[in-house]
Amino acid sequence: MKIFRPSKAVLLAAGFGTRLLPLTREVPKPLLPLWGRALLDRALDLLAGFGVREVLINLHHGADALRAHLETTPRADLQVQFSIEPDILGTGGALVRARHFLPDAEPFWLFNADVAADLDPQPLLADFAQHQPLAALWLMPYLGPRTVEVQDGRIVNLTSPRAGAPDLLTFTGLHLLTKRILDFLPQQEVFASMTPTYQAALARGETVRGVTVADAFWADAGKPMDYVAVHDAVRALHRQGRRGGALFDPVMAQRAGPDQTQGRGFVARAEGVVVAPSARVEFCVLLPGAQIAPHVDVFGAVVGPDTVVERNVTGLVGRADRWLDAAEQAAVRAVGFELAQTTVATDGMRGSQRTFMWLMSGARTAILMRYDPAREENKLFALHARFLKDLGLPVPAVLHDDPEQHLTVVEDVGERDLLNLSKGLARADLLALYELVLRPVVLLHTKGALEVRRVGLPRMPDFRPVLYHWEHNYFSEHMLTQRARVPAEAVVRIQAELADIAKHLENEPQVLVHRDLQSSNIIWRDNRPYLIDFQGMRLGPAAYDLASLFCDPYADLPEEVQLHLLNVYNRASEHAVSVELFWVAAIQRLVQALGAFAKLSARPEQASFARHIPAALRQLHRALGHQPRLPTLQAWVAEAIEQGAW
Question: pLDDT for 449-477, tens place per residue?
Fold first, then answer.
């Protein structure tokens, strides 16, 4: 059995790093450092260690910076060529463009320049030599999205509908393949992805192998917290003497202080960084020239080059004049901020397809929201915020709106939410706090319902059977079927029981509802609650909002507090909600919340949402105790609580 030692590799460096925007507008993702050395250089180090001698690097976004970096730090161990892509071609298109470089007889490596990896290539080479497949892909167990199905070493599906299941694997971005892959790609240089290419090859009887490698390290640095976390992981592996630890730089760590090798929250601190002695900086990557002011907390952050941080921050933090595009810069100026003196911080895209960027300029702050207009409620946000403000409701003011650029700037009301404010309060203080919240809720339900009809406010579809049915399916798919593995026949019975429950809500009078009235969406400023994240302005039953607020799993209020607050609401509102209807709405709302927790926690980077499932189950069990018409659901909830495996 002849084992080739491939001498050629294609390294993919064309990606924009969308999930790391706006940082990657200034620093292309492959040039982001991992303990002081660019991810691109780390990838080249790996390939050189495999025995590669010639590398073709495709370039698109940041092509000039990437090329300059490689030309100013030439490598004696590798011959480097470039493939410039004026238009992004994707991985498959990059291979078509690189056809002249690909070897005819032996396999070659294909690798992403924006991941961190450390492995022995021998298992991949041996598997390839034994089976002679079209390609062999390095797969990782336990980590990542886990979408790849493998049977007897052969990949049978790269996009399994059971994503996240424990028996599935994650593709790492490292391929060992032959030039025959071009037979399954377009002949022209157009955008093409590898997943459908491999799927097409499988359909035509080709073999694509999936290979795991013992004692290997891999990490995706594609999101802000992933990029921070890989630094911490590499540091830990270095202390343990395990593979992957070689990517750590003890000299760089010592620059940040003696605690860096002892296990406290790390700081990867580049040269030229200034940190005031009284600042608290942990789990951070500080790029060249960053300055941290006295008495500032910086936690879980990536601070961009030459950025001055004068407030507590997390996430991606950088200079507005370097990170924001033309439309965003125009919005900053429109609200009176000095662009050169403005710092921007963001934690990336939210689930509602919106990106929030905190603008900080001296003592002033605001929030810039970019949104995907394909989501209808995003386009209506500014209109709805102004409507609610005119109604007298405490919501953030709209400071600037540019519908053509899909951005809005709103007042920053802070981050002190009801959830954190209520922790540890005595019963009387807790009730007083929630009673203050109920004042704008009553106004929303009463005056809001009248005004929205009077002015004909555009809004999202009202609560109707189709919406209740969608929430039931959401719960059944993500919680019952995918997470809990409930038998199909039991899921059908639970669906039928929930359909009966929804009928009680369908006949109720409709008011203007928030729809997501949980404690984290109520912000406290100047002793006043502000409502945020209102979702689309719908008409629906008042009981749904009350269930969202009083049965919020985050807050996990006791039953006697819930019923007391229900009485307070009924005394103040013309839309009184009976106790029976309240528990019906609680069931509806809690199954939706459980569906959300299950879906979110299925992604490794959002696994922490699973910690809210027990409280949601307890709240649902309580509500079901008042509604005996759901025996199958009640039995499942009781069993799930008893098992406690969440």
Answer: 889 888 988 988 888 899 999 999 999 99
**For 579-588, what is each residue's pLDDT tens digit?**
999 999 999 9
516: closest CA among 480, 546, 548? 548
**Residues forming beta bridges with residue 232, ordered by sequence position:** none
> Residue 263 pLDDT > 50, yes or no?
no
Rounded CA separation 466/461 (Å) = 10
CB 597 within 8 A of CB 612: yes
Q: Residue ranges of the alpha helices (H) in 180-259?
A: 194-203, 224-240, 250-255
Taking residue 161's Cβ as centre, other Cβ atoms within 10 Å add up to 9
Output the CATH code of domain 8-220.
3.90.550.10
Which letter does DSSP use for residue 169 in this model?
B
At the top level of CATH, the class of 224-411 is: alpha beta
Among 30-34, 184-188, 266-270, 642-646, the range scoring the smallest mean pLDDT is 642-646
Are residues 501 and 627 in contact, defined by beta-carbon separation less than 8 angstroms? yes
- Checking if the pLDDT of 237 tops 50, the result is yes
Measure the CA–CA gap between 97 and 87, rounded to whole angstroms.
12
Mark out the alpha helices in 73-216 (DSSP H runs).
90-97, 122-131, 194-203
CATH number at 418-643: 3.90.1200.10
Contacts of 475 (CB under 8 A, 6+ apart): 498, 591, 592, 594, 595
Q: Which tens digits make up the pLDDT trace of 23-64?
A: 999 999 999 999 999 999 999 999 999 999 999 999 999 999
Chain position carrying tokens 């009284």: 278
Between β-strands 217-220 and 274-275, what pairing exists: parallel, antiparallel or unpaired?
unpaired
Are 443 and 391 a contacting pair, CB within 8 Å? Answer: yes
| Domain layout of the chain by residue ranges | 8-220, 224-411, 418-643
Strands 528-531 and 522-525, by their bridges, are antiparallel
**Quick check: 186 pLDDT over 90?**
yes
d(CA 130, CA 143): 27
Average pLDDT over residues 564-578: 95
Three-state SS at 540: strand
Is the Cα dihedral 86, 90, 91, 95 positive or negative? negative
Torsion of CA 21, 23, 28, 32, to 10 degrees: -120
Closest CA to 208 of 110, 120, 97, 117: 110
Q: How far, rounded to the nearest angstrom, does the alpha carbon of residue 249 sit from its chain's CA centroid?
A: 28
In terms of DSSP H, where are the helices of 507-630?
A: 542-550, 559-572, 579-601, 613-624
CA 390 to chain centre: 34
